Amino acid sequence: QGDDDVSILTKPTNFVELGLGNVPNDSYGFGQYNGLGRSGIFGIGNLSVQGGDAYGQGLSTRRWSIDGTNLGTDIRAVDASIRDQGHWMFGLNFTQQHHDIADFWTPMQGSMGGNTFRLPQGFGTISTATAAVPYGTQALTPTQVGYFHKVNVHTNRYNTGVTLGYDIDRQWNVQLDWNHIEQSGSKLISSGTDGNNKAFGATLAGYSTGKEAIQMLMNPTDYTTDNFNLALNWAGAKAFFTASYYGSRFVDNYSSVSFSNPYSSGKAPNGSLLGAPYPVDALSTPPSNDFNQVNFSGGYNLTPTTHLVGGYSYGRNTQNMGYVNQDQMQPGGLPVNSLHGKVITTHADLKLTNQTTRDLSLSAGINYNEHDNQTPAYTYRFFDLGSGPETSVSIPLSYKITEGTLGGDYRITSAQRLHFGYEYKETKRWCNSVLPIDPATGLPVGARVSATNARYYQAVSVLDCVEVPKAEENKFVVNYRANASDALNFNAGYAYSDRSSTVNPAFYSPLQANSEGFENYNYQAFFDGSRREQLVKAGVNYQATDKLNLSMDLRGTKDEYYDSVMGVQQGKSSSVNLDAAYQVSEKTTASVYANWQYRSRDMVSATGRDSVGTAGLTGWSNNLIDKGSAFGANLTHGGLMHGKLDLKADASYSLDRTHYNTQSYTTAAIPGVVCATTPGNAGYNCGSTPNVTSELLRASLTANYHIDRRSSVTLGYYFEKLNSNDYYYNYYQLRSTGTTTMPTNQLSPSYTENVVFVAYRYSFM
Amino acid sequence: AADMDAAKTLARTNNCFKCHAISRDKDGPAWNKVAAKYKGNPGAEAKLIHHLTSGEMVKLADGSQVHHAIIKTDPANDTAQIKNLVDWILSL
Amino acid sequence: GNPPIQLPDLGSNHAALSQSAAETAKHALADDAKCTRCHDENESKPILSIYQTPHGVKGDARTPTCQSCHGASENHLAGDKTGKGIPPPDVMFNKHDYPMSEAGDRAGVCLTCHKGTQRTHWDGSAHQTNGLACNDCHKVHNAVDPVRNRETQAAVCETCHKDRKADLLKISHHPVGEGQVACSDCHNPHGSTGPFLLKKATVNETCTTCHAEKRGPFLWEHQPVAEDCTNCHTPHGSNISPLLKSRPPFLCAECHDGPHNSQSAFGANVGGLQSTMSGFAPSGGRAPNPSSSGAGRACLNCHVMVHGSNSPAGAFLHR
Asked: What is the ipTM of this complex?
């Protein structure tokens, strides 16, 4: 028996598990990622088999293994490897990932995964009558509605990996990893195309563009990604070093998606009348691209307590996929037939750490990242959605970030430690490809200057492509840890950072030829703007008894955009966690946890444009609040029925709510939007949005019965209920859309599932 | 029959297994040998309980003499637990 | 400072190198027997299961013996000489009967063999400076180390990172709980040169290992995308699909003030149809209510290529 006990520990236990389960209700929400797809019976298949003479304190170095998980579902995975440890290894793995995205209804014909979508022959055109309600897609005829059919939009990823390792000797090793991902299926995408008649313009509150006809399409994802890493590693007594090549190649097997314009099907063929709506329009899909990178990293122990590590990498991201040929949309043709896109990324880092005494350790480091976009800029003329020919210039952006860090850890007493850190970070942005200036306007070629917007560019003397060419951030961190006693641990921390941004007053994006990006007085995009950020955190862990552990932690952050008169003003977040784990007996454990999260953002926006002040603008504020809570409990109870039965119970509940509130904060002389708090002609643009709520309850109970040493049976019950409520879906219901938007009838994924399953496991050594 | 799980747990918490194994001699004799030795001996249980509670002198493999470990139970002096362990050892 | 703990020399000049695998294994097992003599299959923790792991492949001369990790522990081996109990081994990874060794000593043991590669940036990393050692995550005596297994890894991380556990229950999340994405697909817990222990030097480089279609470069770029995916996305979980920090149009309004539609307030109207006064009406003075700019996908009804577009007719991220 003793020997047997030894081999149970030193030799792997192999098993094969087979079973069945049942999903009663059809719901894309439940099947989102679990691979259970639609309702009905699913298979359970798991296996793990290992072998080789190196197991069981064997004298050889060979081992192999095969593992399979979830074989009966759409998230199956298989892993196999064989190795002669210390010499070589070879591994293969395969995983399927499934993402059920939505059930959606469309009149379009064309299959999911394909790239052409046409309205059915008999669909006709959508009512463009404007004299009576309802209009447009709100007035679809019963025949048109009859063409709507349901499609389950989903994607699959097939992930195949190969690993090869070779140990040249004790110090040198070569490692190759190749990962091949095929993603197929569809995601949802919207598409805008011209409305029926250019002359109809609704320039009213809440709506001021052309008459774009919006519909959702199943955007095919027929992607292949190959990630390849070849590394040479060396480790000696005092130093180590890795040189590697990383290649990532993305191929999109489609270059466009074409679709009928629901407002003009059967009208003028493409290109026959410039400026008229396209009966058939097209969207591009993500371009195929390559990324090749060489990496070097290494370390050297200057002394046993002083270490230096550093690294450098150089990468090239290129993209030169031929443009989708849409001659009819390009008056005057194309300047080039493909992008010749090239971004050089450079990374370098160096860090010195020292621990001369046990009481003090110090570190200093620098970190540099550059994204140098060498793509040439060109001017493109094209017919945009719902408007006449536009002239836009591409603006390939470059940036670099340099960081310096200093850190120290000081042991105050054997039970207390203090960590302090300082970081400096500088961000710089620029464009390599500079545009020619039109002497007539003093603006980049193609920029449209009209009477209404001229004012904003009068003062322009220097033209630049970024709003914040430089930002500097200083950050200070302090953390304190203490062991108040053997059983009581405590930690607290505070961080403060201040980013100050240098705004380029002459910022002018040539793409913004018509309506401009950021030109209101002191408006800055939050990721660019000056910001003060603070973080506090604290935690306690109390080992009340040998068997009971309690812990709590708190965290809060606050960010303020102190130079932004408009835009994001501030944000806050906080979270609290409570946890208790109780070891009832050797085979029985219980634990509970609770989590609360809160996040808010405050923004200020305004109608109109003014580069000199906020006076005269109609402004409003938006406040966003996110609240979440989660609770969970689990219990494992083993050793029942003379050790033959183990029980496990898990339950979790989570509730998340998001809502936005819009308030009018100033009324201006210039008539703009009227902030209305009730539905009506003018819109309903103040007040709170309905809550976006999701409430998830999960409970599972599994019983594992060991028939004998080889056989066991698992019986399980799994309950999951999602209640979700999202205003997002209201808009897409039949007769609730804006008149220019095709409904999709998508529904919020609420469901209740009671899954039962049974599986038999055969174990062997 | 003896409760094997309870017996092993008690033996583990008392570090008995640092010197004993079930079927192999370590510093102390294999417990299945002990069981064989006392097979059919009606006084075995009482003798072993005494052995485990009195700290008799024993000889280790390296020849040194030490007091044999005295078993501890939780709650203290729970003879039922000790009896269970001894019964299990004797059943091996 | 204190002298570092002396470990048996396992450098390249170790005698083991010249031996066959079987001889190496026999020597190593004999070394282990100094400890397994007492610590065997009857331990309450499955100590001998280490022989199922790569550390237990004794024919590989690089693998550790018990003493490589726990220290030579001469006093412990000598036994109870004083009658006060057996002195502790040199390195204690957990606190049971003996006090636990300092984190630096515990990690130092592992780093004698595991320096470099993934652990190049351990010193000064968030985990190191917060007092973690390797065995706070790794269970080396278990047949399968839970932190190395994709299905069980998240539970290990979540013992400390509890917000993440709650995030993964949100309606939009990376399929971590479903075992399809692991924390270590994005993070290198041993330290990295990227922010937040990300595996790659930047956020975008990390995300585009799986979402390479967002890598570009695009003809029409969107600056926040080219710079940092987390400007808009929160990676672990969100109430707003797909992993968005906020719902458009409010998301877009965090950066866009001027252009057409973001010049108007969007409040309750985004919630859907509130009145019959809907439709685009050229003459009747009626606004589409709700408007396609605020409701549903909002800005993304038209600006469909938020991540960038490669269509020469796709400026403004339209096609």
From this structure: 0.91
